[in-house]
Amino acid sequence: MKILKVAVVLFGLFLITGCSTSSNSSTNATKVETSSKGSYKALIFVNSMELQSVGVTADESKLVVGEFIGTIKEKIPIEIRPTVELTSNYLGEGMEIYSAEGITEIVLAKKDNGDYEVFE
User: Fold this and answer.
1) 8 Å CB contact between 110 and 98
2) Which sign, positive or negative, has the C-alpha torsion 67, 69, 71, 72?
3) Structure confidence at residue 39 as a pLDDT band (50, 70, 90)
């Protein structure tokens, strides 16, 4: 009976420690997390801020296009987080970036079809 109790306790400890899903390794901070759908986040780095596409246009959000900020200088791989001014893991080089009138936390990217994609 005593051996059975010891075996049950050891088995329980084995399950608790062996089946842990947490990891002690550090993560690479430059990698982009994926969205809940399994795709990567569309990011740009503008005005020392990392901004994410919200998937709508300025017209849909009732935003007014403000001043020209600049153009995307480099498109980096989609799985990398942009950390250099006017870089993106989504927008191509040369894409124009504008401010949203009256809202400093939002920028607008002019798309080839003339629409402005919202990043916040």
Assistant:
1) yes
2) negative
3) confident
Q: What is the CB-side half-sphere exposure of residue 41 using CA atoms within 13 A?
A: 20
Nearest to 30 by CA among 86, 94, 76: 76
Joined tokens for residue 79: 């799985």
Instruction: Give the percent of the chain with pLDDT over 90.
Output: 67
**CA 90, 91, 97 angle in degrees (round to 5)?**
135
**Separation of alpha carbons 4 and 1, rounded Å:** 5
Q: List pLDDT tens digits, range 14-29.
A: 555 555 444 433 333 4
Between CA 119 and CA 70 the distance in angstroms is 15
Sheet containing strand 43-46, edge to edge, reads 65-71, 96-100, 103-110, 116-119, 49-57, 43-46, 87-88, 74-75
Amino acid sitting at position 29: A
pTM for this prediction: 0.70
